[in-house]
Write a structure and sequence with these properties.
The strands form two sheets. This protein has a seven-stranded parallel β-sheet, sandwiched between helices. It has a six-stranded parallel β-sheet with strand order 10-9-8-11-12-13. The chain folds into two domains: 10-180 and 354-369, Rossmann fold; 184-350, Rossmann fold (3-Layer(aba) Sandwich). The termini are close together. It has helices at residues 23-32, 71-88, 106-111, 126-133, 135-147, 156-165, 183-187, 215-222, 236-241, 243-249, 261-268, 286-293, 306-310, 322-334, 336-350, 355-369; strands at 10-17, 41-46, 59-62, 96-100, 119-122, 150-153, 174-176, 201-206, 228-233, 253-255, 273-276, 298-300, 315-316. It has 16 helices and 13 strands. α4 crosses α5 (135-147) and α12 packs across α15. The chain is α/β, with parallel strands linked by helices.
């Protein structure tokens, strides 16, 4: 089925509880939900423990529990999720499937009630990481790559990584469509407060503090640094999990909580640099692009995905080498002209990635398959 604008109606599911932190969740909500979604969709997430949260328009919740990654329990979870989607979807109304991640439970579950519909699989990064660590997830990823009519990777680094995990993947299926950030953030970023003179460099870490995000690496790297102030915006449990390491390193941090995006965008204007110490890969690093749009320079580990999305518009460093990170922090702290140059380069880089362009490219690809 198509909408009045001849856009196929999408069925899509992200098997995370509504309200979960992370860039994949924000991108999902940006694209498929709201009063006037960029991509018309039946969009589903999981009902979180503790009740129904406030939801954006168009987001539906599935009361399915037992999410896991391996073995018979994983297969039971996929079956239960597939059954819930079967009860919720009318196949004749759907034009195309957008499979969020090539692994995890929602991907095989969504194909069960809609076995004949065209399928676009979207690489997010965590699917690649978990496929490397869990045999069942690798099998899901390889099967999805085989069954998908098209695969969307936001960077060539993600496409290359997928090919290493699933070498039989038909390369003609892979399309490079960068993720994007809200257009209004590019045209109407928050107004920065009047900058006060300080001898300290105000650093901000924003995001999950899981192992691949490099929170422990960051703390160890900053232990020897002088003249810095570190703020962290992260989920509470993950922040407090790092508290013993921060205490041993002698680092005092200011905990901002897990901020809603308008609050985070305001926080960007109140700091001197965003630090991104990711240890393995990032699909694209949307938080870095949002920071750049708000005029915040980025200091990052040049892992796959980030290196491609940021390049020379941000300052690449080595968070695993205390000497290198100390040198680069000193450069930022003592060189206002470097910060200014990075602000300007960052804004120009972020402007390359409007969310409307992402949505238009995904819609065009959907039309080609329907």
């Amino acid at each position: 089925m198509t909408t009045p604008e001849s856009r196929p109606l999408v069925a899509t599911c992200l098997d995370l509880p509504a309200g979960s932190p992370g860039g994949s969740v924000e991108l999902f909500r940006d694209l498929y939900t709201g009063e006037h979604p960029l991509i018309p969709a039946r969009a589903f997430m999981l009902l979180p423990p503790g009740g129904r949260p406030t939801l954006p328009a168009g987001l539906e919740l599935l009361a399915v529990t037992g999410k896991t990654l391996q073995g018979p329990a994983f297969r039971r979870y996929v079956a239960a999720l597939g059954q819930a989607l079967t009860h919720s979807l009318a196949p004749e109304r759907i034009g195309v499937l957008h499979l969020q991640h090539l692994a995890f439970g929602a991907t095989p579950a969504l194909m069960r009630p809609l076995p004949q519909h065209p399928r676009i699989a979207l690489v997010h990064g965590t699917d690649l990481l978990f496929a490397e660590m869990h045999h069942d997830q690798l099998q899901v990823l390889r099967k999805t790559a085989r069954l998908a009519d098209a695969i969307v990777a936001p960077t060539t680094a993600m496409a290359d990584h997928l090919t290493r995990l699933a070498p039989q993947t038909d390369q003609r299926k892979i399309h490079h469509i960068p993720w994007g950030i809200p257009d209004h953030l590019l045209t109407r970023p928050p107004t920065p407060p009047k900058r006060t003179t300080t001898s300290h460099l105000r650093l901000l870490y924003a995001g999950r503090l899981t192992a691949e995000k490099g929170g422990d690496v960051l703390i160890k790297a900053l232990a020897a640094a002088k003249g810095i102030e570190l703020s962290i915006a992260a989920p509470s449990a993950e922040f407090h999990g790092l508290t013993p390491l921060m205490r041993r390193a002698g680092i005092h941090t200011r905990y901002l909580g897990w901020l809603r995006r308008p609050q985070l965008w305001k926080a960007f204007t109140e700091h001197d640099a965003l630090v991104m110490p990711s240890t393995t890969l990032e699909a694209m690093g949307l938080v870095a692009l949002e920071a750049q749009a708000c005029g915040l320079p980025v200091l990052y580990q040049p892992v796959p995905g980030l290196r491609e999305a940021l390049g020379s518009s941000a300052l690449a460093t080595d968070f695993t080498n205390p000497t290198t990170i100390t040198r680069d922090l000193d450069r930022l702290r003592t060189s206002p002209s470097l910060l200014t140059a990075l602000r300007n380069a960052g804004r120009a880089n972020a402007a390359r990635y409007p969310l409307s362009t992402t949505a238009a490219a995904l819609t065009d690809l959907s039309k080609q398959l329907t």
